[in-house]
């Protein structure tokens, strides 16, 4: 009698590996749909990456329309269409608000908890899973998936067998490894036959040559234009915020372009950026602005006049880069000097020499090959009863809440699908 009861419990058990956004949502959704759920998290607490996301504020999702949302994932976005049709941004917002976490929508459609605390998001999941009797087991490192006749039968965890009829792999990517996302899931998926699209850092700062960025380190610019050149050819333009670092460039506009830069650098292509400090003005309008300023302030020195055009930290750097004497009177600036200044303001060059590692990358590019996963259920096409969700998959998008929504949605669908499969098999 005891053995039959135990076997019946195992046949209803869904094992979730990983306590990040995808894993927490998957565990709850599987439990809601009637499964017994065990959540194995190798860190001491789940949700560590959620806690640091959005600089501790947690950019949950974005209010963009479905077509625009999918476009942010590039050619792989179509994989998410069915998933998002079942659980999308409005559903996620409602999920949190029903559990006491109100949200606010900010610039660019970004959605945050109203109180600005990522910890509130983790708290919602902790309470939800507790109420659903999900068995959370921290400090549980999964070493192997146990497969029998092409069907997953459990996992080897901390040297012990944990049995179950479905496993949801939601271990995250390789970015921010200190939070537990150290790439374990890629190895586990590969061992059962899955192909792994080469992983690399994404939404990551870049390193630049020449020393100019280091001289401006700490300066934060808004509303600037950035042009990406690959092998000298214009590849992409972007607009937004930029931050100078000792090693190079960061900020949203750089992170948005970083995937193209990383991929180009990995194959040995030349990468450079042109920074436009005055994107609202074309060259003729900027020239007219300079002529007017220099005429009106002709008896003032250039280091004083340029403070009306540039942040103070950039003034002396600008004058040195354009070979204009700081003490020169504005009324004495030559046409050639004005041309050099105008050109520099519109196209400051930065040769890109490298990129930062996974420790500083917001997400991981690459991952489990999407063609090997059923987009209708998140079940593996290679191993029955195995589901994959979140950053482990070859899905990555721009900043703005898109990646976190994909994690929540794929986790939601994986949890629902795993429970439905077991219910169908066991009629529980």
Automatic annotation (TrEMBL):
SUPFAM superfamilies: FAD/NAD(P)-binding domain (SSF51905), HI0933 insert domain-like (SSF160996). The keyword Transferase does not apply. Its cofactor is FAD. It comes from the Bacteria. InterPro entries: BaiN-like, BaiN-like_dom_sf, FAD/NAD-bd_sf, RsdA/BaiN/AoA(So)-like_dom, RsdA/BaiN/AoA(So)_Rossmann. The keyword Kinase does not apply. Residues 200-363 form the RsdA/BaiN/AoA(So)-like insert domain. Residues 13-416 form the RsdA/BaiN/AoA(So)-like Rossmann fold-like domain. Keywords: FAD, Flavoprotein. Pfam families: HI0933_like, HI0933_like_1st. This is Flavoprotein, HI0933 family. It comes from Candidatus Electronema aureum.
